[in-house]
Predict the 3D structure of the following.
Amino acid sequence: MELTTWQRICNRILGGVLKSKARNDKKLSSDIIKAQMPMMPEVFLATTIVTSIAIMAISWALVAIFFVPDIGVIAYWEGIQDPATELPCYEWEYWYPELMDESKPGKGCPDFAYQVFPSSGKTAIILIGGLFIPYFGYKHNKGAPARQAQARGDMIEKYLSAANATPAKIFRSLAMNKEIYADVSDDAAMVYRDVTLLGFDLITAMKMGVDRAASVWLTEFFQGMVGTLTAGGQLKLFFLNRAEHYMRENRTRLGMFLESIALLAESYIVVAVAMPLFLIVMLVIMFWVSGSGAQMSEGMLYGIVLGFIPMIHIAYAILVWTSSKEQDM
């Protein structure tokens, strides 16, 4: 697979400088191999660093938009009249029209004041946009091989063919059924390629597959197959035992997944269905009979109903989606 244009640009900028360091990083090289990422370690590291620099530049540019004098977001915010002074100024204009001066801010109202952007907000913008986003962007990009290797490791085959077929044919069959076996078919394809195209014997090819496998289960499967062939055992019995073992493991994982989904469903009924109903009723009552002891603005009521409550449903949807993705086989 060819490198993308962005990867080629990044490699030309930093690839030569990082070549020695990247290739000496054994963990990075291992993760790239297990993740089936078709690039050299120095290409990945150069792409990660240049991409992180681009993210940092964009983040700093967005932060600068807030702090640009006169035309920035903060300047625009601080150029708006403070809502707390609108009513006093309106009353002042009504009772003292002769004192109004169009050339002065607020037409000369003594109570007029602009909004003040909070210092904590400025600090949060600088920390989030100038520090946290670039840092976590770099960590996210650098951890891509490990995440992909782990994701491939979770794609474990559950059923194996063992009916009068040679091991090479079995790996070929696995490689040709990617829609069933997912990323496991990639490891099988590499073993079949080593045997048929590169001329390695089956045991050597599977030993090489052990180093490439991202899954602990698949590594154990290859090692068990090598041990069975070396000891002269029957592969058919080994396949049957492994298939039964993987099916039991899969049932256990699915049972735990269903239990977690049931727990989420119960909490969803309480948090996302019952609680909002009582909350809306209480907020409406507080809004109608609000006195000095319980003030409820209309904007706050809209914010809770249209913002906070939908966020609960979105959060539960994300939880269920992420839990389901972990169970993809």
Notes: The chain has four domains: 5-69+123-151, 87-114, 155-233, 254-326.
